[in-house]
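Write out this protein's structure.
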Amino acid sequence: MKKLVFKDKEFWAEKIIKTKTSIIFYVGNEEVNRLQPIGKDVSQYRIYNEDGSLGQFDTMSFNKNVVTTGTDLMRLLYAVLKENTYLKKELQKIKGGIK
């Protein structure tokens, strides 16, 4: 298990992954916690390995063994629907301009 220290709080997980907007904690392939939003100064988040040595953020791997969280799926769905709406409006503009 790794430990992330932020101010006076400690968070434990097997994998600790930093994205642009959050820090996600995994045990196995299951998300167990999320810090969101995170500050721009990443130095305020310290990660320690099991042996107490300084660690680093893990990288996200996308494969069949990784469980995608509901939050991630909702964000993906929102992005797809938003793009679909935009494309429909653009298509209507094009169709409206052709007589």
